[in-house]
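Priority: medium. Attachment 1 of 2:
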């Protein structure tokens, strides 16, 4: 169950979303203008914001800008009738996590709500939006990696593993450390799952992305030579 702020000035749509989310067990609050929405969203009392772009007093872009510029990282799903690529890009660059063109079926919105709540649960506590080590960049919002500017899609586990490697770049991490951080404690210590996933990362990011340190584990990132 989550606390969800619905910023929507059209009563009919606000009530449609409210009813659907309440039926899923979520608690909702509605704001009918952007200034109220921003105030409420900044309170830190919400797990997710569903944000209409066309709002009175302050539009959705203004609300997003206010939120992100004040460091609020609450996930935001933008609703808009302006179903164009330019608007999508503007919303996402403004710090929205997802985008839902109107009209939509409730199931479509619900799928996005579930996804964003799940991702928020295991979002890193770091306030950084991206990690960068050598030629590899990892966007912590979109969970997409880039190698030499080439986009690499990652599975959830690959993302977690790569994030752990990049946060600890240059350090050797043992299989046990990797297992417990990425797979949790419910694992078989004799499992070769770490080696398998390191293999996946090498295939996606280049064979040299992760070094094997014999008898110790794995190391990501520059070796002494490139670091000086
Ligand atoms: Ca509106």
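Attachment 2 of 2:
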């Amino acid at each position: 169950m989550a606390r969800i702020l619905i910023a929507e000035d059209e009563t009919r749509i606000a009530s449609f979303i409210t009813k659907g989310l309440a039926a899923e067990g979520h608690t909702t609050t509605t704001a009918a203008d952007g200034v109220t929405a921003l105030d409420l969203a900044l309170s830190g009392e919400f797990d997710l914001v569903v944000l209409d772009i066309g709002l009175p007093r302050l539009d959705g872009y203004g609300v997003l800008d206010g939120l992100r510029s004040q460091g609020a990282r609450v996930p935001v799903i933008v609703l808009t009738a302006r179903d164009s690529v330019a608007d999508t890009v503007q919303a996402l660059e403004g710090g929205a996590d997802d985008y839902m063109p109107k009209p939509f079926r409730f199931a479509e919105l619900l799928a996005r709500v579930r996804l964003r709540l799940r991702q928020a649960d295991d979002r890193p506590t770091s306030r950084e939006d991206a990690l960068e080590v050598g030629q590899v960049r990892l966007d912590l919002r979109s969970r997409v990696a880039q190698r030499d500017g080439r986009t690499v899609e990652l599975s959830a586990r690959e993302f977690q593993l790569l994030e752990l490697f990049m946060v600890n770049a240059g350090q050797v991490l043992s299989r046990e450390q990797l297992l417990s951080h990425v797979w949790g404690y419910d694992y078989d210590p004799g499992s070769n799952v770490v080696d398998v996933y390191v293999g996946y990362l090498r295939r996606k990011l280049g064979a040299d992305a992760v070094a094997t340190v014999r008898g110790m584990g794995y190391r990501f990132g520059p070796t002494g030579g490139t670091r000086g």
